[in-house]
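ERR on first pass: missing label on line 2. Operator R.T. fixed the label and resubmitted. Corrected input:
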Amino acid sequence: MNLEFSPEEIAFRDEVRTFIAENYPVELRGKQDEGDELSKEDFLSWHKVLAKKGWVAPAWPVEYGGTGWTPTQRYIWSEETARADCIRLMPFGLTMVGPVIYTFGTPEQKAKFLPRILSGEDWWCQGYSEPGSGSDLASLRTKAVQDGDHYVVNGQKTWTTMAQYADWGFFLVRTNADAKQQEGISFLLVDMKTPGIEVRPIITLGGEHEVNEVWLEDVRVPVENRVYEENKGWTCAKFLLAHERSGIAGVAASKRGVEKIKEIAKTEMDDDRPLLTNPFFRRKVAELEMDLTALEYTELRTLAGEAQGKGPGPESSLLKIKGSEIQQRITELTLEAAGHYGAPYFRGFGEGDNEHPIGPEYANRSAPVYFNVRKTTIYGGSNEIQRNIIAKMVLGL
Amino acid sequence: MDFNYTDTQDMLRDTLARFLADTYDFESRKKMIASDAGRDPGIWRALATDLGILSAPFSEEQGGLGGGAIENLIMMEELGKVIAVEPYLQTVVIGGGALKAAGGALADAVIPEIIGGNVIIGFAYAEPKGRYNLANISTTAKKDGAGYVLNGHKAVVYAAPWATHLLVTARTGGSQRERAGVDLFLIDAKSAGITRRDYPTVDGFQASEVYFENVAIPGDALLTGGIDLIEQIVDEATVAVCGEACGVTRKLHEGTLDYSKQRQQFGQPIGRFQVLQHRMADMFLEVEQIMSMTLMATLKLDLPAAERKAMVSLAKAKVSRSAKFVGQNAVQTHGGIGITQELAIGHYFKRATMIEGQFGSADWHLDRYEQLTLSDGT
Ligand SMILES: Cc1cc2nc3c(=O)[nH]c(=O)nc-3n(C[C@H](O)[C@H](O)[C@H](O)COP(=O)(O)OP(=O)(O)OC[C@H]3O[C@@H](n4cnc5c(N)ncnc54)[C@H](O)[C@@H]3O)c2cc1C
Ligand SMILES: Cc1cc2nc3c(=O)[nH]c(=O)nc-3n(C[C@H](O)[C@H](O)[C@H](O)COP(=O)(O)OP(=O)(O)OC[C@H]3O[C@@H](n4cnc5c(N)ncnc54)[C@H](O)[C@@H]3O)c2cc1C
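pass 2 clean. output:
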């Protein structure tokens, strides 16, 4: 047992650090994942730099374009990108549908879709949730009926993140209404430009447009765009959910978040002293670091297990629960640090808007971000559902 | 011991509740906020003239109904239930409260105008660096002949874009953070030398950064009482905000309870899941304690300053924590729909969040309580 990086790993870290310093797009510097609303171009500019370098999908098998990095190298990568305040890449292609396609897809599907996910040519969205099917995903009702070499899809999806930009979506649809719920679902890849698809915005509490309703009316999807067997889509979905959860701890980004709180609290005055010397505030920062360290070493143990061939199991629920709670506490403390200046509603710099923000910059979006990040305990399987999974799968209750 | 409201107080509540039920549904509120002014001035006029209830907390000699803090609590609680964006706190509780306490010609002149709905007041006390210490201010009011000249910058002044008057804390003497030398002025919001930068707030109000540059104000704009008066009216305002929290959190709890009975997942209402039942039971406990603490503090506002401050702080600390608990869990129990602009619940959550920090966070109030009651180690 050993917590040190090897000399090779340190050399790798330096290489990564230099690469980011030299190649992170200038126009993205200073922009934050949560604080600023990022455009499609923002996301793609960093994506494309990494695609060119061959580093855009570290976890993929080498044969499909992965880096072949060890879990430690991947850990170093996420640490370094967070440390440099790099924006996070959209996960829908890279960490969701990509792995499903290389695990379950046909050779044709792999050849068609994987390179375009890597290059950033296709923007993907995830069409799982429906108005009546959130936590109870398997109850979904969007229906696909085969008609010759096409499926005809009808129904409604919701909460579809960034669907307004999407070229493709992966959808769970019901292909057999008579079977047991989980056994009548198929996994379809849908061209978002197909006639009959309508994307309508949902505006969330911070004023953001990041989620959508997706309405499907007689949408014709070629049968060749079904991944895996008909009515076996749940297998893909479960595989994907486990993948989604393992990245969700967000340790590196949260570490950076805590550092930012410290920077803020050094500047922000609490009456006659910097906020960071206020014993109550400082204690909350220390508690955050305590829990974050506990999460970090839990994740490292999981990563080490993965290196020995253990896939992410129900334990990944632990990472999701603790990771999301910590992300929320960071936004809570940031808002608290902002004091009076948490109240002004500042929408960021729109086009032609050159007004100065109100109060210190760190305070500007502190409340909208706090509101927005309530989502982390709801999406990706709510924290209640994660605890149910632990109770059932880990504790045998 | 008696926790009952009088018939007149019940009537005040009913009158206001009925009016708000007719005028302040969620869709109407949305429209008011989206309008240019950010509110519907007709509501304020109706409260003043049709209902005649802006007079509730003023004495009969002042043209009021003879009420006080309990009437303010009733008003704030009902306004909280519809997350109203009316300037009642700033105008009646704070402005009216300061005038009531200071008395004099200015009070005699302005109180009837408040009651009549012709005056709206913004409370300009916070400064960019002062945080919650009311004496930590650098805005100055320099004596100049019979009057004063005002200079400085006040931060996040709620209701300032609508205000006819500003209630301003400023230094007439002493150094930054010194208690002595802090005074309170009620001035015309249109005085020459005042500039504002207006903006909406995250909880649906309108507020401003207010800048004073050599603003000449008359001598009788001063409300005598200094920092003690300021602390008293801020304590009254703090308790009024607790009253608002009673209304806001009750609605958060009720809305969540209703939703949990309607929303079906796994073939049953989500309210059947025990983890959610316990959570809603806990939310209920917190709402009840918010009510208890608010009543307690309301009834202690007349105590000598040290005791008053201690009990107000205890109340606000509890209310801040409970409002956070209720708000966060209301959203969580709603799932995705809880974080959209579409549903009212998210808007109640935003207001609850802002209440947490208003006039001091839980930590700040616990600290004040400790210093007042525990610091001598006995
Ligand atoms: C910002 C955001 C982005 C999203 N992006 C996507 C996306 O891109 N694609 C997509 O398909 N979906 C997406 N989702 C949807 C997300 O997966 C769902 O919101 C989530 O599954 C919860 O479903 P729901 O919102 O319908 O809540 P519900 O399932 O109605 O849950 C309401 C409450 O009941 C609780 N609950 C439900 N069942 C149980 C139970 N058995 N035991 C105990 N408690 C229970 C929940 O935990 C929650 O607190 C997104 C959601 C959000 C908020
Ligand atoms: C100091 C002491 C004094 C007592 N005095 C008396 C007395 O004078 N007379 C008398 O008759 N009894 C007395 N009791 C007994 C007491 O009433 C029982 O201990 C109590 O009813 C719990 O029963 P149990 O101990 O069998 O625990 P259980 O009922 O077995 O409960 C075990 C755990 O499961 C939980 N649990 C059980 N059912 C549910 C559910 N439906 N949902 C969620 N959680 C659940 C419980 O909350 C508990 O945490 C006393 C107990 C103690 C400890």
